[in-house]
């Protein structure tokens, strides 16, 4: 029942910026970590950025200094501000969350939930 919906992907020229947003909804008691992953054709899905419930962050070395992850716990949202985009940033970006929820009277801590992904294309 819990779902993540991403938005903000699109086409941008190298050096430009995009802001991705992800909203979690459903039967959610709390969310531990939230993150953004990306996957390009033929390449394994990789972690881009992650933020814990305590606002500790972790970034892939390739995006440090360019991307910023943030979350709004009250709204169950997470965003990824992407600046100075490069063609190699082109990928489908997926939102991920570790969610405390109850399904059929079973308490899950933590259940991993993924969004459908949003495509980011950076042209040179």
Primary descriptors:
4-stranded antiparallel β-sheet; mainly beta; 7-stranded mixed β-sheet; 124 residues
Question: How much of the residues is beta strand, in percent?
Answer: over 45%
Counted beta strands: 11
State the end-to-end CA separation. 40 Å
Approximate helicity band = under 10%
Shape: elongated
Summed up, the helix count is 0
User: Structural class of the helix and strand makeup?
Assistant: mainly beta
Task: Detail the poorly predicted runs.
Answer: none
Write the layout of secondary structure elements.
Blueprint: E1 3-7, E2 10-13, E3 18-25, E4 30-39, E5 46-51, E6 57-59, E7 67-72, E8 77-82, E9 91-103, E10 106-114, E11 118-123
Parallel strand pairs: 2-11
Antiparallel strand pairs: 1-3, 3-8, 4-5, 4-9, 5-6, 7-8, 9-10, 9-11
Describe the structure.
With 124 residues, this protein is mainly β. It is 0% helix and 61% strand. The protein is built from no helices and 11 strands. Strands 2, 4, 5, 6, 9, 10 and 11 form a 7-stranded mixed sheet that branches. Strand 7 and strand 8 form a beta hairpin. The termini are far apart.
